[in-house]
Each structure stands twice: as structure tokens, then as C-alpha cells.
């Protein structure tokens, strides 16, 4: 019998070749390709008075040099604003190569193609550019002050101003028994995938086809962009995503300038061309995230229940807005978490600065929103002298209140309606897991030993499975093997395993007989991409639906062959059998042969199915509503997003002398609906927690007043080692299935990173007894806070 695989801890099938060094990343492809290098602006804000490339043209090995003046047609237009929004009244995007002005250090100015990267880099250094310097705008405060403008035609540096509300927050706060005002800051950070951006392109002159391999999270998006910018038919462009060494959101932008410049050069030169980003380029020319200033006004009653919540924040979107307002919209809506403020108002400005663009980075606005809300919950608890967990519990949406409509619009333009959850149950699990109720004793014992320890918790709700759609294609071959494809891409999430588990269960075949391909427009021309924790919900559902179509067809064909009723058949281990009569059977491979009227006896399985049979002379071999082959496809389009949830707790110790922060315990309770593979979900949580630790305690983008990034290398941009992340993460799962998709799934990819800033701020504040209002926080900053507050820790008898 075929073992049920959905919900089981199945080892990842893709790992063997990675562990053996057999991965195929973009830079591994076409070793004989020409190489490209990019001249990038060394200045944050300047007009380009002149570009002189004469010194490059005679360099041996240089084949082409491009500046903006060499671009024509759509390539000479700005890159697309991918997600417009009515409130994005002053959206701006950059050109593939800078036209007249540069607006951040790292903006592409010239593109050189040579026989190798060394020659290309040497040629880039010989290009002479004359600049007229303009005053840079760096940081949210400078953008708000608007003494200087990033774009002359954008008043006040405001790309967008957006407001949403439910109820009357202002009046509710004014009438509340208690009120608080809180100011918070989250600084910039960025994703650092092991593999930077990379693109390879080859133009086939004979077939007039463009083939592109690129390290992306959206192969179909890149395909459309290349076709548009190079004025090709969509059918002339194939985009394949090889192995991708991490994405985390930075690779969802499409196209990056290089993704259209590389194909341009490949077509012009008639030879394959490759671009591989170096690490400094990734720091200064890819994308950042996180940076916000926040102001919260809240009114509440004696039990800490929210009566009114008003949030005003300012979001740093960098020099351009290619991905629209996704990040601040998510902050403004996901801020609500598992709570139900009776009246809510949110207002934000998305502001231009002369810094690297801001696009989604794992968590995508949610860490900032959770930081605002969870710090507010902590502040209410401190004000009332109540347990932080109890204040949260007093505000939870209850299990019988789902679906819960917040009366707002989410990032996808659809109502913010939570589909399912049980937040009180998650909190009880977390309290037990971390020992919350007994921690006061732990704290007191540590203090008696001269140690500072603190505990923190943070809750979140994560919108996942964002539409509009994804597709799945399932094909049973005559060998009995099953080929599966879906258009979204893979960056290490375990898709080949999880999707295979779904198909193996749906079709009743062994896992090893299922092969999954992702991110290849030749196999799946219609897709959206991998982001927003949507792969399992979207492609998983589409693949399940496609597999069910194939199963129904297989049973119908087998029923005819076995002269049995469809309802009497079952599929186990790749064989269709009559229930209760195991000797009456037919292999799926043979059924696949039978599905094609053109059979030919190529092998023994084909011989078994290729018989000269006189059929109904009035019936065509293939029904009008059918097609040859044992394959099927389907698309899944959700009515709205699913909403996963979770709660984290951490125990930290802060060194009394050095202010170093040590993690003693870390616990997670997570609800992503039905679990396809618990081991993969836990791996996602582990990775997210590690990334969250980095974002809370180490990683930041440090710009000076001139717009120069001061830490654009791993010598200066601190990332946590294995010694800095929790050695053990205690994890418990809750499953509240989503009613919105056929498998009951919710996403899990970003969960580990979302609550980290709020979580560590809460724990450090508990250990130190001083307010933590800006994240990330380093030991030196904590040390300065101690001096500034010159505090004497009071004795506290209340529970944590």
C-alpha cells in the first residue's frame, strides 16, 4: 500500500545534489559566455553633465559599451511601476541606465560587455563621468523636512499618502479611561542571499528566440519584461530559473536593469552574455527594507482592552517605487495582529530618499507593524501593572468570531478578513512552552546572582497565499513516472518535496516516482511568482486540483479497460485495482498508453495496451470533451488571502558590564493550517528566527549624511553566526485549516522573522528596566541607553 505522505516529515528530495555540490546556479551556466559589468554612481544625488566612453572603446576584449543614449524604444523608457495604487500619486522608477540624473549610490550608468569579467571591470573604471552635485536627502527625518527634494516634481518628497480607518479612533481615544502616546523607530536592513543577482541570455538567430536564465522569484514576470523592452513577442522569450541561492524578496523585482540589458547585448552581439553581481553591488544597488518612524496613540480600559488605536507612520521607500506601496500597506493592515481594536485609524506617508530602493524583504512590512502593536501592548501592560500575556489575551479575536472582518483593505485590494485561527489556544501553548508563568522566580534567582535576565513575547498574524492565481500541470508518463510543473520559482523552500507529497497522495503513487519542475516558462507560461508565503497555498492547491483531474481520467480509462465501475477502483503504489479483487489491476503507465489512441508497441507496457480493437463506429477515438494523454492542469485563484498566525517568546540575558545580549531560550507556536511536511515548516521557522535575530540585534544599513553606505561589506554589516542564534528552538504547532483552499493550507515562509524586533525589544526592556523604542539594538547602543537613563532597577512584584 502507498503510505499517506501529506502531513509526514519526509526528507527533502532536492538536498542530495546540493550537498554533493551538484547545484546549478546562474553563474554555473555557459562558462564561455561574454561577461558584463556595470558602472554605478558613486554619488547619492547628481546630474550627469557628460559621459565619456572613448577610453573604453579601444580596450582589447571589450565588445560593447552602453549608456542611456544607446537605448531606444521601450528600453529608453523608465522601468515599470509593477504595482500601481490610487494613493501612489507620485510613483517614480529608474531607467535601465541613468538618464540625466542619479538618485542613489549604486544606480546603473553604463553597461560594458567584454570577453571576461576582469576586462569588463577594467573598462568600467576607465569611463569618465562629469557630475553636477545635488544635495542628498538621507533618512526619514530629512525626507519629512523636505528642505531638499529627491525628485524636483515630487512635492515634499511624498510618493504616497494613504489613510484607512474603521470606527472613530480619535473620539474613542479621547473618551477612553487611559491613553498613551508612543514613538518608535525601525532602521533599514536588507536581505543577503548567498547568491546575488545573476542573468545569462542567449539569442538564437535561426529561430529568433531569446533564452534567459536568471536568479529570480518570478520567471514569468521577467519574461514579460524582456519581451516588452526588447519588442519581442511573448512567445519568442523563454525564461528559466535555475537553482537560486536565496531570494527573501529582493529577487521579486522584475526587471532589474541587468535583466533587460543582458538580453539586449546578447541579441546585438550574437553571443551568450552573463552578468553576475558581486557582494558590494548587492549592498548598494539591489534593495533594502524596514526603515520607518512610527507614532501611536491608544486608548484602553482598566483591563487593557483597546478602545481606540491611531497609528501614524512614515515609510522610507528609497529613490524609486518599482514595487509600489506593498510594504507600507502591509504594515498598516497587519499591524492589527490577532487583536480587535474597536476603533482603528492608520495614516502613512511613503517618502523618497536618495538611498537604495525599498522592496519587500522577508516579512515585508509585517515586522514593522508587529513592532508597533506589540510595543503598544507592552506599554499598556506596564502602565496598568498587568501581565503582558493577560493584556494580549484580553484583546484577542475569539475562535467563534471567524471569519473576522477588520473593515480595511489588504495589500491585494481585497477585504482584510481573517479566515481561521485560535489565538487563545496558541497563547496557552506558548506560555507552557517557555515557562511564562514561572519566570518571575527565574528572574529573581538570576538577580540574586547579579545577572540580568528578561522575557518577552510577541504575537502576529501573517497574510499569506496572496492571489491572483497559480497553475499546476500533472502528467503521468507511460513509464508510470509523474511529471509535475508549476510556474512559481524555488529558492530553497523544499517545493520539490512538498509538491511531490501532494501529488503522491492524490494519485496513489510512490514519492520517488514524482518529479517537480518550477520556474520554467516553457513548462508553465502563466504564473505570478514566489513571495508572500504563497507557494504552498497557491501552487500546492493548483497542483492538487490538477492531480485530481488526472486521477479522475485515469480511473475512467482504467474502468473501461478492466470492465469495472469507477467507484470500485482504487490506486495504490501506481497501480489501479478493483477494490477487494487485487488480481484485477492495471498499471498507471499502461493507463497512460491507453489514454493516447496512437499507441505503438514500443515496450512491454505498450504491447499490453496496444491491441487492435473494434470500437463503436459512431464514436470518435477521442471524446469531444477530452484530449489525448494522461495529463491535466488546473489553476487556483483564491477569493482572498489566508491568514496564518503565531507567537514567539524569548528569554535573554544582558551582560551587566558589556551589555552583550545572549539568548537563553526561544519558543515558537505557529499555525499555518494543515501541514504538508512539518519538517520543512520547522526548517522555515528556524531560518526565519535566525534572520530575525540578525534584524533585531545586528543588521542595519548605515548611511551617512551624504548618502554613502558605510557598511557595504560583510566586514562591517554584521550578520549572526551560528553562535548568535538559538541553539534550540522549541516549536509547537496549531492547525486551524483554512476554508479558502482545497487543502486547508496557510503560508509559513515568513513566520520566523516577523515578530523578532518586537520580541527582543520586549525581553531586553524586561531585563534592563529601561524603554526600548528603536530597533535594531546593539550592545553599544544598550550601553549608551543605560548611561542615559542612569537607572536603578526597582523591585517588582508583578508577574511578567
In short:
With 800 residues, the chain is an alpha+beta fold. 27% of the residues lie in helices and 24% in strands.
Give the overall shape.
globular
Spell out the CATH superfamily of the largest domain: Aldehyde oxidase/xanthine dehydrogenase, molybdopterin binding domain
Helicity level:
25-40%
Can you tell me the CATH class of the largest domain? Alpha Beta
Q: Tally the beta strands.
A: 29
Please describe the biggest sheet, giving its number of strands, its sense, and whether it closes into a barrel: 7 strands, mixed
Structural class, please?
Answer: alpha+beta
> How many structurally independent domains?
3
Question: Strand fraction band?
Answer: 15-25%
- Uncertain segments are 794-800
Which strand order does the major sheet show?
3-5-1-12-9-10-11
Q: Kindly, what is the distance between the CA atoms of the first and last residues, rounded to a whole number of angstroms?
A: 52 Å
Instruction: Specify Rg, calculated over alpha carbons.
Output: 28 Å
The appropriate CATH architecture of the largest domain is 2-Layer Sandwich
Summed up, the helix count is: 20
Q: Can you tell me the CATH topology of the largest domain?
A: Aldehyde Oxidoreductase, domain 4
Q: What is the typical, i.e. mean, pLDDT? A: 94
Domain Aldehyde oxidase/xanthine dehydrogenase a/b hammerhead: 20-135
Keywords: Molybdenum, Oxidoreductase
Pfam families: Ald_Xan_dh_C, MoCoBD_1, MoCoBD_2
Enzyme class: oxidoreductase
